[in-house]
């Protein structure tokens, strides 16, 4: 029963994580069409990349025992490819100022991850200590990943608009966190369960904020027939205005 539950949580975690990683495709289709990153932030995608890199390494046989965490490797491996693609598109269309901000986060983060991988591979010589080390670093990255939407949530509260907080991103973030929390608890993997203790409630909070502000700040565009009506009225009023003007000038 335990093995079946473990497998089920792994499959559901994989499925929802893949959906979570693919949801931003719609956002970046918009970026490509508009040829602008608008008000979208690159920080969540950069931190997600860090998280995927660390947990892919965590699940590989170098750190974990054989392929006990294959589900973690498969989903985070795909996540690396997708998050890297999003970041590349962002850098292509972002302003020079935003590129600089993103690079200041991306570069040091990649350096820290490379150093962590080297230390785990060559300093520690057994799976147990490697998992503790990489799991601890991954825990920090996960906390940052799940905390990064707080920036977007603040923007939503200030602007009272959910335009830059896609619903499905929030939904699948909540579901993925919940399933990986269950997976970590069932498999007794503390470093998989712990970050999702933060991620699951934060994902739920995003949903609450989304539903609170989704109808705020929506401005209805005037209908075409209204514009035509107004145009006709203005034409009808124009001769009257002209006549009155002529009347004033004749009196003078």
Automatic annotation (TrEMBL):
One Gene Ontology term of the molecular function aspect: sugar transmembrane transporter activity
Topology term for the membrane: Multi-pass membrane protein
Keyword annotations: Membrane, Repeat, Sugar transport, Transmembrane, Transmembrane helix, Transport
Pfam families linked to this entry: MtN3_slv
Residue spans of biased composition, Polar residues class: 236-252
Location relative to the cell: Cell membrane; Endomembrane system
Function: Mediates both low-affinity uptake and efflux of sugar across the membrane.
Biased composition (Basic and acidic residues): 226-235
Main localization category: membrane
One GO cellular component term: endomembrane system
Single GO biological process annotation from the record: protein homooligomerization
PANTHER family: BIDIRECTIONAL SUGAR TRANSPORTER SWEET3, RAG1-ACTIVATING PROTEIN 1
Underlying gene: LOC115959363
Top-level taxonomy: Eukaryota, Viridiplantae, Streptophyta, Embryophyta, Tracheophyta
UniProt protein name: Bidirectional sugar transporter SWEET
InterPro entries: SWEET, SWEET_rpt
Segments passing through the bilayer: 6-28, 40-58, 70-93, 105-125, 131-152, 164-186, 192-211
Region (Disordered): 226-252
């Amino acid at each position: 029963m335990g093995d079946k539950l473990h497998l089920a949580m792994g499959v559901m975690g994989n499925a929802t994580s893949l959906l979570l990683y693919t949801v931003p495709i719609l956002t970046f289709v918009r970026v490509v069409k508009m040829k602008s990153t608008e008000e979208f932030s690159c920080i969540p995608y950069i931190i997600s990349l860090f998280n995927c890199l660390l947990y892919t390494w965590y699940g590989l046989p170098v750190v974990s025992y054989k392929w006990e965490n294959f589900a973690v490797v498969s989903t985070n491996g795909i996540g690396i490819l997708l998050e890297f693609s999003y970041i590349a598109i962002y850098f292509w269309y972002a302003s020079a100022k935003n590129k600089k901000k993103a690079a200041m986060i991306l570069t040091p983060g990649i350096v820290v991850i490379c150093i962590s991988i080297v230390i785990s591979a060559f300093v520690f010589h057994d799976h147990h200590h490697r998992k503790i080390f990489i799991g601890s670093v991954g825990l920090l990255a996960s906390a940052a990943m799940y905390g990064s939407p707080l920036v977007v949530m603040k923007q939503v509260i200030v602007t009272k608009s959910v335009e830059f907080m896609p619903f499905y991103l929030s939904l699948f973030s909540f579901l993925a966190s919940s399933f990986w929390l269950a997976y970590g608890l069932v498999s007794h993997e503390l470093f998989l369960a712990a970050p999702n203790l933060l991620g699951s409630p934060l994902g739920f909070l995003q949903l609450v904020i989304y539903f609170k502000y989704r109808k705020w700040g929506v401005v209805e565009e005037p209908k075409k027939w209204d514009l035509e009506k107004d145009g006709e009225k203005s034409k009808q009023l124009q001769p009257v205005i002209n006549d009155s003007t002529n009347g004033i000038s004749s009196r003078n």
